[in-house]
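Z., the sequence and structure:
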Amino acid sequence: MNSLAAARAAKRLRAAGYWLVSLTWGGLMTLAGALIALGMLLSGHAPKKLGPNLYFEVGRGWGGMEYGAFFFVAKDAGESTRLHEAGHGIQNLILGPLMPFVVCIPSAVRYWMRRFGSERGKRAFSALLCLLLAGMGGAIAGGTAAMGLAGAAWLMLAVGALLVLYAAVLGVWLLYFEIPKYRAGAYVPYDSVWFEASATRLGEKYYGKK
């Protein structure tokens, strides 16, 4: 086997490993991505590739979002955005089922929070979102307790309680650590938070031009 054939075989092996982990440990996000990808295919959007990732271009002016080994970007998104979203795919390999809670939800909330021009607007949006999330958790926990704690009901009670706790942690991070950075109209780089900086670094390292 010559060096070129060996390099191609190694590349295929890495891609197979990427998809194996993405569909198992990282399966929660990849399954969601597959469902969205199916919708894209049915609506006539053709998939493209970046490394082992499949991605679709749709709409304009909105950036991108990652779902495991799939990601979706605006048609006018630059190469840096595509690399960034592919970097989130590598994070999914590492974090697996924790990915939605550690990266995806905070990233999405922060993205929309940044759309509000004033600090007051950012705080109102973040507080309302966290209250809604906590309310969902409280409703799950309260409804389960009212029906009686038997069998799988304990699991639902735990899910509701964890959702309330997660909403509280998310709210503290946004209101006391993230939003104060924007005080007095200060410019805050998109990659100033660890999970965004990590995605950019990973995407550029593994998929950027050598």
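The longest helix spans residues 119-147. Residues 62 and 74 are 6 Å apart (CA to CA).

Let me know what you think.
H.
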